Amino acid sequence: MRFSGTETYVATPDLTAAVNAAVVLERPLLVKGEPGTGKTVLAEEIAKGLNAPLIVWNIKSTTKAQQGLYEYDAVSRLRDSQLGDPRVSEIGNYIRRGKLWEAFTAPERPVLLIDEIDKADIEFPNDLLTELDRMEFHVYETGETVKAVRRPIVIITSNNEKELPDAFLRRCFFHYIKFPDSETLQRIVGVHYPGIKHRLVEEALRTFLAMREVPGIKKKPSTSELLDWLKLLVSEDIAPETLREQDGRKLIPPLHGALLKNEQDVSLFEKLAFMMRRDQRGG
C-alpha cells in the first residue's frame, strides 16, 4: 500500500515519501504549509490513490477532543425518561459516535483527516495523545472499550495559527508543503486544465509569481486562487498579450478579485500603479 499521487493531484517526491513513511511508521502525518497549497486535498487524494474510505473531522475553535471519541446526550435521555420513552433503558441510544470511533470501527482501513488542528484550544492535541497512540478509548457510560479494527491512516493539517505541543509533535511524522515552483505549478495547471493554451499559462504564471513577490503584500495568492483565476481568464477569453502589458494601467491584472482578497493588497497595487504612471510621465 503505497501512495504515488493521482491523476488529479501532483505530488512531489518529498511529499509522497512523507506519506509513505507515515504509513510504514503507523504515525499521524502532520502537514503544514501556506493556505491553498493542497493540505486538505492531500487526504482526499491519498484515500483515492489507496482506494480507502475517507473520514473527515473538521476542527473549529470550539471543538473538544472528546467529540472525536463520542458524546453522551444526557439531556435527551432525561427528557425521554420524563416522557416515559422505553429507549431510556438502553444508554447506548444516547451515545453519539465521533469521527475517531467511526475510523476505529470502519470495515476497511480508512484515511482519517483531522483538518486544521491548530484552530482548537491549545490542549486539544494533548487530549488526543493516548487515543492516537493506543488506537483505543474507553466509553465510561457503557463500560466498553473501543479498539481500532485496523489502524487508520491519520492526516493532520495545520495552518500554524497556534504552536502544537512537543509531546504531540513527537508522535507525528512531519512534512511542510513548500509553495510550488514554476515547473510544478505548470504541472498542476495541466492536470486541472489539460487543454489550456500554453502562452496564457506562461503569462499568467509570470504575473502570478510576480504578485507574490511584491513587498508588503498581506496575503499572497495561493495555488487554488491561481486555478480560479485561470478559469476566469479562459471564460472571459483574456488574451495572453493583455497580461504581458506592464504599463501603469495594467499593473493590476484583469479579474484580480480571484487573487487579491483584501482591500489593503488592492490598495497596495493601486499605489504601485499610480507610482508607475507618474514615473512614466516624468520620463
UniProtKB/TrEMBL annotation:
<dbReference type="InterPro" id="IPR027417">
    <property type="entry name" value="P-loop_NTPase"/>
</dbReference>
<dbReference type="InterPro" id="IPR050764">
    <property type="entry name" value="CbbQ/NirQ/NorQ/GpvN"/>
</dbReference>
<dbReference type="Pfam" id="PF07728">
    <property type="entry name" value="AAA_5"/>
</dbReference>
<protein>
    <submittedName>
        <fullName>ATPase AAA</fullName>
    </submittedName>
</protein>
<feature type="domain" description="AAA+ ATPase">
    <location>
        <begin position="25"/>
        <end position="183"/>
    </location>
</feature>
<dbReference type="GO" id="GO:0016887">
    <property type="term" value="F:ATP hydrolysis activity"/>
</dbReference>
<dbReference type="InterPro" id="IPR003593">
    <property type="entry name" value="AAA+_ATPase"/>
</dbReference>
<dbReference type="InterPro" id="IPR011704">
    <property type="entry name" value="ATPase_dyneun-rel_AAA"/>
</dbReference>
<dbReference type="GO" id="GO:0005524">
    <property type="term" value="F:ATP binding"/>
</dbReference>
